[in-house]
Write a structure and sequence with these properties.
Layout (H helix, E strand, L loop, with lengths): L5 H12 L4 E5 L8 E6 L5 E6 L5 E5 L14 E3 L3 E2 L6 E2 L5 E3 L3 H5 L12 E7 L3 E5 L7 H5 L7 H4 L4 E11 L3 H8 L9 H8 L11 E3 L5 E7 L22 E7 L3 E6 L2 E11 L2 E11 L4 H14 L7 H14 L23 H14 L1 E2 L2 E5 L17 H4 L1
Antiparallel strand pairs: 1-10, 2-3, 2-5, 3-4, 4-9, 6-7, 7-8, 9-10, 11-17, 12-13, 13-14, 14-15, 15-16, 16-17, 18-19
């Protein structure tokens, strides 16, 4: 049910997506003063992100304060004023209303420009120059949500300024949590011939020795390994690396509820999801390199990324095929109505602790048990006697 029920999805929007920090864009997508970029927030709200002439990045509801029209239609651009097509109301990069056509004639003294500025959204830039937004005005700082989960990758993220090389989307008829499940366990590497050949079958790669580390708020990281690209005939993968990452290294951090940082040898890939319904989700993919790259190095990074992560690469389409296949099979009304999360391998790479840890956070925020979602969770009764020792529960001990 948690993967297919419409009512549960609407509850997720209110209790999760409208309450947590979401990665919206990278700062390089609004590099210059007056650049803007639109973002469809998973909570259901359209936003527009703007860099002002003071070079500060701000986020606003992409809704004109006059008659509720969508203010910005283009996905990106540069404009000194954001002008609503409906009645030509105009706003600056700080959200101030700067022009109401025939305002005095129509509103006399009852409405002024200072009354109708755009509603601003909590915004922070960090962890490699990414722009994070939160619809909850009373939320805590971004650092409180991330905690130490990205410390593992921070040296690489902050070694040099980053820049988006590619941006592309995929639309799947599946539930966003099924995509997360795939990203958070590597037992699915049997799906990828490329991964089996370049890591799983190499006893020296450290593949099976990698372990999950779980963090508060549902986040988790996966230990590094050495990727043996030469084992894949015709790979053509370069020796280009990434500052502070070991040669042919690979690091991955998964952030609740739907963001993945994936750094592999010479390229950083960011996955973020925009759920539109219980069985409809847009995946956003960003491929990043270094702002200091020469044209030749940038071309090589793009070639390395294309080998495994482009829409025609070795891995990406296989992940999407598996997640969409689950969505088809688990459509509302299908049978059976459960999935099995039962692998325990001492928190190593084929353990499914990543999924269990994620669903533990999901259950806490939703007030429901992920394994029995029809029953609302209740506060535990006060213990009157010393409880007996319990059997090992990975989700509780991570």
């Amino acid at each position: 049910m948690i993967y297919s029920d419409p009512a549960i999805f609407e509850e997720e929007k209110e209790k999760i997506f409208k309450k947590v920090w979401m990665l919206a864009i990278h700062e390089s997508e609004v590099a210059n003063a007056n650049d803007f970029r639109t973002y469809q927030h998973p909570g259901g709200t359209p936003l527009v992100i703007v860099r002002g002439e003071d070079m500060k990045i701000r986020t606003f509801y992409n809704i004109c304060t006059h008659r509720g029209n969508l203010l910005v239609y283009e996905p990106s651009g540069n404009a000194k004023k954001l002008v609503c097509i409906f009645h030509q109301w105009a706003f600056d990069a700080k959200g101030n209303c700067v022009d109401i056509p025939r305002g005095k004639a129509g509103y006399q003294e009852r409405v002024s420009e200072s009354d109708v500025g755009l509603k601003e959204v909590r915004t922070e830039v960090g962890y490699g120059g990414f722009v994070w937004v939160n619809l909850d005005d009373s939320c805590g700082p971004l650092s409180e949500h991330i905690g130490s989960s990205l410390d593992y990758m921070l040296p690489e993220l902050e070694a040099e300024p980053l820049e988006v090389l590619w941006y592309y989307q995929a639309t799947l008829r599946t539930n966003f949590k099924l995509i997360h499940d795939t990203n958070s366990e590597f037992y699915h590497d049997y799906l990828h011939y490329h991964n089996r050949i370049t890591g799983m079958l190499d006893s020296k790669s450290g593949y099976f020795q990698r372990k999950y580390t779980a963090f508060p708020n549902g986040h988790a990281s996966v230990g590094s390994m050495n990727v043996s690209y030469d084992a894949y005939t015709g790979s053509g993968h370069s020796k280009l690396g990434w500052p502070k990452l070991p040669t042919n290294g690979w690091k991955l951090v998964d952030l609740f509820p739907c963001i993945t940082f994936n750094l592999r040898t010479s390229v950083l890939r960011i996955d973020s999801y925009i759920p539109l319904g219980p069985d409809h989700v847009i995946l956003e993919f960003r491929i990043l390199g270094l702002k200091s790259d020469t044209p030749e190095i940038r071309q090589q990074r793009e070639k390395d990324a294309a080998t495994i992560w482009s829409p025609f690469g070795r891995n990406l389409h296989e992940d999407l095929l598996a997640s969409s296949g689950q969505g088809i099979a688990m459509a509302k009304g299908s049978d059976p109505m459960y999935v099995l999360h039962a692998r325990e391998e001492d928190l190593t790479i084929h353990d499914e602790v990543g999924m269990r840890h994620y669903l533990e956070e999901w259950s806490k925020r939703m007030g429901r048990s992920s394994s029995d979602p029809m029953h609302q969770a209740t506060a535990p009764k006060q213990q009157t006697t010393v409880p007996k020792p319990q059997t090992k529960d990975v989700a509780q001990t991570v």
